[in-house]
Structures are given as structure tokens and as C-alpha cells.
Amino acid sequence: MRRHFNVACAALALWGIAGSATAQSPAPAKTVLVVGDSLSAEYGLRRGSGWVALLEQRLVEQKRPWRVVNASISGDTTSGGRSRLPALLNQHKPAVVVIELGGNDALRGLPLEMTEQNLRAMAQAARAAGARVLVVGMQVPPNYGAAYTQRFADTFAQVARTEKAELVPFLLKGVADAADPLALFQNDRIHPNEQAQPTLLANVWPNLQKLLK
């Protein structure tokens, strides 16, 4: 009888240890999903040097329980992102979605109304899936005309406001408007170089950090 009692006690003790370990195990990592174009896809850059990779490094260094999924594709438009998003939401179940699209819409001369509709639809789909949303704004050079330039910049702010999303007004702030901007761009004068990537992250981080709950 004593032997059976000792075995039972040992079993309970082991169960208690296992239960304690389970209770103290860290929470599973939440996901930040970045849906963007070449500015987020490390176009022309050394792998791991883009702002999205730097974001992941920062989260690891700060021991935050987050992982980053970079679903950015060079050349993508808001239409492409809108069509890809449902599958990405289903696959990754993100808690935060970063939408960095729209620049290629302007380069292709696509209607601003369509860009706004696509961004709005993406924000709505992300929110319906339970994710918080960060809209990353872009601006176009003044040679597009003052009226178009202002309307384009306002599109991102309007979407963020109506869809209750956080907003980065201009991803390339401090890069495209730097004293010597060519020093921060690759030879194509379109894509920021590796030196500029920490600035891009600095532009995104304050607003993204609000969503990392």
C-alpha cells in the first residue's frame, strides 16, 4: 500500500512540474504581416538589410513576442495586394497588417479612385480578420502636378482616417527630401539604398509600435 502511495505522489509531483512549466511557457508569437512593393521587398538590396528585416531584428532584440512575415512583391500595385490579401490573412492569421502600396499605381497612371478603393478594401479585410492596420503613405514628385501630388498624398490619410488605421504619412521622409537625396538612392534614383533603410524603419516604428499590443 505504501508503495502505491509513493508512486501516486511521484506522479502528482511530476504532473505539477509539467503543469508549472506549461503555465510559465511564453505566449506564442503574434504576426505582423507586411504587404508592400519593392520599397519593402529589398529590391536591389543585400538580403536582410531592408527596413522590414530591420524591424524583425528590433523585435527580437527587444524580446517582443512578434514575428514578421514580409509578403511584399516588387512592382505590386494596390490591385495586386488586394487580390493577394485574403489568402495571406488566412495563412498567417496576423494581428497587425502593414499596407505599403500605392507608389506603382501612380507610376502607372492608375486612377486615384481605384487606389483609394483598393486600400480601403484591404484595410477592411484585415480588420474583419481581427487585425489592426497600419497604412504607409507615399508621395510623388512635384512634376506630377500640384493638384495630383496633393490628392495622392491625401488618399492614404483619408483611408487611414475612415478605416480607423494608423498612418505613416510618408515612408521616404528624410530620404527623398534629404539635403542630398541621391546619396540615399540606388543608381535607378527610385529605390532607397541600404544606408536609407534605418530611416525608413524610423518613419514606420512610432505608429507601428502603437499596434503591438
TrEMBL record:
Residues 1-23 form the signal peptide. Residues 34-195 form the SGNH hydrolase-type esterase domain. CDD domains: Lysophospholipase_L1_like. It comes from the Bacteria. Transmembrane segments: none annotated. Keywords: Signal. The keyword Ion transport does not apply. Gene3D superfamilies: SGNH hydrolase. This is GDSL-type esterase/lipase family protein.
